[in-house]
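User: For my dataset I need records formatted as: sequence, then structure tokens, nothing else. Please produce one.
Assistant:
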Amino acid sequence: MKKLTSLILAAVLTASMAVPACAEEYDFSNYDLEYYQKFKGQDIELNVYNWGEYISDGTDDTLDVNSMFEELTGIEVNYTTFDTNEAMYAKLKSGANTYDVVIPSDYMVSRMMHEGMLEELDFNNIPNFEHIDEKFVNPEYDPQNLYSVPYTWGMVGLIYNRDMVNGEITGWDDMWSPSYTNNMLMFKNPRDAFAIALFKLGYSINTEDPMQLREAAELLKEQKTMVQAYVMDQIFDKMQGNEAALAPYYVGDYFTMKEVNDSLEICIPAEGTNIFVDAACIPKGAANKEAAEMYINFLNEPEIAAANIEYICYSTPNTAALEMLPDEVRNDPIRYPEAEQLANAQMFVNLSEETNLLLDQLWTEILSDDADYLNWAMPLFVLGALVISVLVTAMRKKRKKKYR
């Protein structure tokens, strides 16, 4: 079960007898009240759009981050979730732009930035940016650091159930092993899925070569016959419940799943893997931009960033929060690997519009492709037709057999 550090727990006081027993009262003595309470009493609401299972929410004795922000600022938070970058992007692109804060991944930050979908941030309103590790400042996806503030980072690994696999799991090749047919899960988003195939082929995960992308698509079509399900958040129930032997997913979520099912293990594939950053941004035209910047700043209060990281088990780019985490977390080589361990890792970058369109087209083809199924099923169809033909021939006493 996730537990807050003693320092974070110290921030939570016993609930007042004047309020319901379920309510919490927080100690804000270490917060800049002049800054955080400038909008108090103005009935401001913030619409926040984040990944599922991606913020400390008060369950299992954790800190309720949104509740604490509301009490501190008087700003109401309307919090909803998405399960893929592409789903989030499509919703905002459709004109459903009612969000004040969104938390996309690196390549999607870059795409939205280039398409004019994000507001430039006023870092005077985000003083806690000073806690961001310099390794994550001015990243390739936002070179001038105008549009985003890192929230978490991590890697993709191959999660497996040691009681359900045959031998050692070492890399992406294992996901094409026929022995795991109908016993493996796969990403339900194109960028992560294609990355796995491209790593297997030895290509860059940011290739814009149509031939290489089509080769990767053929590999994913071949794999499709073995895949039990394409998943995102559904992976938790399936891997925790022993419903699949192996699945690629984010390292942070592996630790969450392992708390429920101790038979789960993870490997960082030898062929290389994706290292990613998820970052807080403000969509173009957001109704409450300054309040949204305040929310982003709050996420980077050291104890808040530490509470979020302890809850979701990803890695933090916040150096002050990192110092607050237990030694076994800070020294974990999977959560915080040394530079040499990242030698084969690659980070996504924004692709051209033409390549994004090709990826979308190829992904649609993969998910709708039934050719492999028909190739597998055809012998049964032929056998069935032959049996029927024989019976009909015998009944009608014909001398010729017809079948295809």
